[in-house]
Predict the 3D structure of the following.
Amino acid sequence: SDKTWDTVSLVAKKLAALGLISRELAEDAVIDVAQDLAMEQAYAFANKEDDCWLNGDGTSTYGGIWGIRSKIIDGTHTAGAKDAASGHDTFAEIDSDDLLTVIGVLPQYAAGNAKWLASRPGKALTFDALAVAAGGNTIMTIGERPRPTYLGDPIIVSQVMPTALTDISDTAMLLYGDFKAGCALGDRRGFTMQVLQERYAELGQIGVLGWERFDIVNHGLGDTSTAGPVVALIGE
């Protein structure tokens, strides 16, 4: 009856990227080269955010951010880090019982918005392989574009998740849960671009500088006795 809140503190980290283009290219190109370079920088930033969110190890490489996959196997979140069956240490070896174990440990309050997170190889060799093995067609599967789901829960693909086809034991192979409830991402300023006309003038070049400030805190991974809204399947 008395609702409480935890304090989650975000401290902005700065990402920046600088690209140089010649003035001749900027003048002669059919496309807006500076804008195209800025879009590429924005994509790189998004990829880096995902990498920090999932794989961060607390070092300066990740701006001090601890990712879900690193944090959930640190020994203090064991309730939500479920081991696959013995010998199941590759995607091809994961079976439905392994996945059901992960589904079963997720708290009920997180089930309504639960999603799977896997790399493309992880999705293909685990979820797609199980779907093909199950067989059968319906009007929906024949007449509509397939939507990646497993037992009704969406499957989201991220290539910063594990992609190796060999032994990846003792790592979080797949993640599952309500990521909005377990993770906080904040930014002080979205992607910002600045064109530097004079800085590289003596070289006949134009600088395209992009930057953003953000932080990520994965606060909902539970503890040693209670699973949080995000859980993981650990290769065994």
